[in-house]
Write a structure and sequence with these properties.
The complex is a heterodimer of chains A (408) and B (168). By secondary structure, chain A is of the alpha+beta class. Chain A is 50% helix and 20% strand. In chain A, the strands form two sheets. Chain A has a six-stranded antiparallel beta barrel with strand order 1-2-5-4-3-12. Chain A has a six-stranded antiparallel barrel with strand order 6-7-8-11-10-9. Chain A is elongated, with a radius of gyration of 41 Å. Chain A starts with a helix and ends in a 7-residue tail after the last helix. Chain B has one domain (9-167). Chain B has seven helices and no strands. In chain B, helix 5 runs antiparallel to helix 6 (106-130). Classes of the chains: A alpha+beta (408), B mainly alpha (168). The interface between A and B is large, with 52 and 52 residues.
């Protein structure tokens, strides 16, 4: 018993400490170094950040170069598949383009209105520049969903910068190096985005699932009673992590579960080649009224300013509410008038139908009288005409209408 | 079989091939994830490290394995040192197996490999969830362990061919 324990200890000790002729370090040393690095990387120290950024720069570029052959094969495969469905896609795209063109105009108007209102509510406006970035590494890990882009702190990318595919949100920057950055995709398990579900106007949070769809969580109760299928999901801007009003995806019900909904992202994260990073700059908006007040009072109290803003906001909301109420009243009156008009029209149609029916009857009568004058004597029963009929009978009428010929 | 001149360039290239493949695989994340098979992923570096350290391959330096771990962490986006620790633990496990084994048996190695990757992935998962508050899917880990275990024999067969070529 004791000897087997000794053997075990000798084997373990040998495994940890023995170095082969080629090995420069014992395994125990390397284990300690690994643990030391893990502990260090958990602290957010400045020199570790720089060290990590340096390593990342070299590794990301190397990874990009090493991945070239595989990416070439992968892209060729996707391109061949695309060509096979090229014509069908062209037809669908053409239809979509026509629809989008018509929507685009109203969208632009809404955007302008939105900007105006935002300027009124906030004391600053957000002007943003979209920076085109190339994805250099997009290894689809089974655990973490992230991509590496070729823009970094040199190009003013910061942690939290929103990343877009066309106008759809795909994620945000979680690690910035000098010329590269890591983007955490919306599909990652660690991704949480505050959203609004339209047109129901429900606030919720979308979390990644590790798959190519998200799941709606932390929403109000009773959501299962609502029909959310095909609703649009866009960022609500709550928490100021993501810009508000950016489309994310469409709601799809999970089969077999009434209170679970998933979100099909508009963007296909596995097909991303280029993305846009939004560089946001805040610019103060100086309201004329506010400027006068500031000059007069010379009080630079932030609490007062905030109160002022809130009051302004309240005023705007009240005004908007009043406007909506007036509009509502007008619309109600319009609806009533239209209903009245509909009833009038219906009555008119009924009267006209009656007149037409009477006219048809009169027309028949006139025709009978005309033919009666012409063929009455041939149909009327008399001393000389035994085959005739009594005047006023239906046989007589049909004989006259048949121009003097009796029905067989 | 190809004949190499000892100490020639091709011989050196051939003898350093496993460590180069290790670095390429960690830089490239060679695991066929882009095939979009929902329940398929495997850890190629685990297989490579386990096989060549078990065979005590002379050009498979532990320091380089350690560095490959750091590269893997950087590419995948894990905290630095996690993969290095995993790889070094595999080296320790294989070193221990070598010390206690008199007559090697591929089937026993295979099941020992399952035990090792199960243990290492558990440590990995525990560190990431407990100390770094990562949300991870346990199912992904289980699938990864299963396929890594299944594919071990296939790759071991290929690697044996490689070693045979080197010895010839």
């Amino acid at each position: 018993m004791a000897s087997s324990r000794d053997d075990f200890i000798i084997a373990i000790r040998s495994a940890f400490l023995k170095k082969s002729t080629q090995q420069k370090f014992s395994l125990l040393t390397l284990v300690f170094i690994s643990i030391f690095i893990i502990v260090l990387s958990s602290f957010d120290l400045k020199f570790i950040r720089y060290l990590k950024a340096g390593i990342s720069e070299v590794v990301y570029r190397s990874s990009f170069i090493v991945s070239i052959p595989e990416n070439f094969l992968k892209n060729t495969f996707f391109e061949i598949r695309e060509y096979s469905t090229f014509f069908q896609n062209y037809k669908i795209n053409k239809e979509e383009l026509n629809e989008l063109k018509s929507k685009s105009i109203s969208d632009k108007i809404t955007q302008f209105e939105n900007e105006e209102l935002k300027e009124l509510i906030n004391d600053y406006t957000l002007s943003s520049d979209k920076l085109l970035a190339k994805i250099i590494v997009d290894h689809d890990s089974p655990y973490l969903k992230s991509i590496i882009i070729n823009k970094g702190s040199k190009d003013n990318i910061k942690i939290g910068t929103n990343i877009y595919d066309r106008s759809y949100l795909v994620g945000r920057v979680v690690e910035v190096n000098y010329k590269t950055s890591r983007v955490l995709l919306l599909s990652d398990l660690n991704s949480n985005v505050p959203v609004t579900i339209a047109p129901q106007n429900i606030q919720a949070i979308i979390t990644g699932t590790g798959e190519n769809y998200g799941e709606i969580k932390y929403t109000r109760e009773g959501i299962s009673n609502l029909n959310l299928e095909d609703s649009i999901v866009y960022t609500s801007g709550t928490g100021a992590i993501f810009k508000s009003g950016t489309p994310i995806g469409r709601v799809v019900a999970v089969t077999g579960s009434s209170n679970r909904f998933k979100v099909d992202f508009y963007s296909d994260f596995s097909q991303l080649k280029y993305i846009f990073a939004e560089l946001v700059t805040k610019t103060e908006v100086k309201n004329e009224d506010q400027q006068v007040e500031i000059e007069n009072s010379q009080i630079n109290n932030t609490a007062d300013t905030k109160l002022q803003i809130l009051e302004d906001e309240k005023k705007i909301i009240e005004q908007t509410n009043l406007k909506f109420k007036d509009e509502n009243e007008l619309l109600k009156i319009k609806i009533n008038n239209l209903n009245k008009q509909i009833v009038d029209f219906r009555n008119e149609v009924y009267d006209q139908k009656q007149i037409i029916a009477q006219y048809n009857i009169d027309l028949d009568e006139i025709e009978f009288l005309r033919l009666n004058l012409k063929f009455g004597h041939t149909c009327r029963k008399s001393f000389l005409n035994n085959d005739g009929f009594e005047v006023g009978t239906s046989e007589y009428k049909s004989c006259v209408m048949n121009k003097g010929q009796a029905n067989d | 079989m190809t004949n190499f001149k000892p100490r020639g360039f091709y011989f050196k290239f051939y003898s350093f091939l496993p460590i180069m493949v290790l670095f390429i695989s960690v830089l490239n994340e060679f695991d066929l994830n882009y095939l979009k098979l929902k329940y398929f992923s495997f850890n190629f570096p685990f297989i490579l490290i386990f096989f060549f350290t078990l065979k005590d391959f002379k050009n498979f330096d532990y320091l380089l394995v350690f560095l490959a771990g750091l590269v893997n962490d950087t590419v995948v986006g894990l905290p630095l040192g996690i993969s290095s620790l995993s790889y070094i633990l595999i080296c320790i496990a294989t070193s221990y197996l070598r010390n206690i084994t008199i007559r090697p048996n591929p089937i026993k190695d295979w099941f020992y490999f399952l035990l090792v990757i199960g243990l290492i992935n558990s440590i990995n998962y525990s560190i990431l969830t407990l100390f770094f508050s990562y949300d991870l899917l346990l199912l992904s880990y289980l699938v990864n362990i299963f396929f890594t275990f299944i594919l071990y024999m296939f790759f071991a067969y290929l690697f044996k061919y490689y070693l045979k070529g080197l010895n010839d």
